[in-house]
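Give me a protein, keeping tokens residue-aligned:
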Amino acid sequence: MTTKLRTLETVHDRGDSNLPGEKLLPVGLPLLLALGLGPLLAALIVSEKWTGLALVIPFLIPLVILLVRYPFAAIIIWMVVMPWFRFEGMYKYVYYAAHRSLIPLALGLLILSRMLRLRKHEPIRLHFLELGTLAFAGMGIISILISKKDYTSALVLHDQFLVPFMAYWLVRLSSAGERDVKRLIPVMLVISLAEYAIAMMSWFAPQTLPSIWHFSTLGSRTAGTFAQPAIYACILLLFLVYIYHDAMNRKKGFVRTIQILVFALGLVCLFFTFTRGAWFASLVVLVGLLLLYPKPTASLAVAIVLIMAILSTGVLTNEFLHAADRLASAEDVGEARLVLAHAGKKMFSARPVFGWGFGNYDRYDWRFMERVGETNPTKWQVQQGTSHHTYLTILAEMGVVGLFLYAVPIGWWLLLTIRALPRLPRVGFWSRKWLIALWLPVVAHVMIAQDLDMRFFYYCLTLFWINLGFIGNTVQTALQAEGDEAVRQVM
């Protein structure tokens, strides 16, 4: 089995050596993007000198070349560009280019290349349950057509679900493997450091930040460039898992030390979100990493706790008092959201099979708001309040059929993970620990989604499905090595 698995891993990560620059482009240009384009865009935002965007033009030619030869590069480019902008004003054009167009274009090129056999592609084995994403998308489109909504509803569906699904399929159809993941990790490292700096500035020196990163939580909870502290935490947790796993599979040295320090600093930044759901999700991820890597994780956790305990008696006294206040206010916040959750449950009960139609939650939820216990609906809740639960929103809008189609690929890969684990190597980057580690951000995402509607946070949603694509590819690597028929149902 070991020989077969090693052979499969070699094929899985093999490039097409017949194309000139095939080895250089995927390695060199993503690094150029991470260390050049990302900081350049950030600097332009900070200075708010938009004429300087002309400096980005020289990057476009190599990006086009890279996209044609290496479609997975769209994921890297998207990941570098998207965190720094909000969907408003002139910034929305970045969303048009990077979110609405880039990944769909790369997926289209990849599918066309496979159909016309323009290049060598590794055979991909798919299961029909993965097509739940396509069925969900079709259901959403039909719902919009029946409701006779304008084109903006279709764009919302595209942003919230279609692009994340396309990112998943781009990872799957490109057979992205270990080498592709390792190309993402430096990008994650750079983005994480930038987000740490912005988060700390928003807490200690908010006046130094440009207006684009001024949010309602400024000065009370850190959110980096993502507007919402829980989303900031959800994204960081995914990045930290990838960075930490890579560090644990490196020899001792400068790079490994930097990665561990970035991980430790990330845990500190997660504390500054002052978000209970983010804290609990972080704790679950940390426990998971502790089980995977007991000695280094335990030593690191103890060191962080001791340092934070010392700082809590001096420099960070106010921060720890604020954290205690946040924990004490949990019951009050929970009662306020009971009304919103109750309305969502009643909407689902009224139309449990197909729901009220995509995008109709905020249109009808006010009809179902009523007194819950001692809590009355407020004027703001009736007029502007929305769901604080991602999956309750899907249930209300798309019914149990929609939620099933959305969740079935996740459940399928979870079942196959159990089958695949014994067939993966015990040690190494692409191993059992890697597959288990990939599920930690999924757990964190689901936990945070219980108290937050992820529909409005495209970057976080898309990262979730990219991560699921890597889970699928890791499982497939193991099962194909044994000729398992579970991955031979389609194509």
About this structure: The chain has 19 helices and no strands. The mean pLDDT is 81. The longest helix spans residues 390-420. The chain has two domains: 2-292+391-487, 329-388.
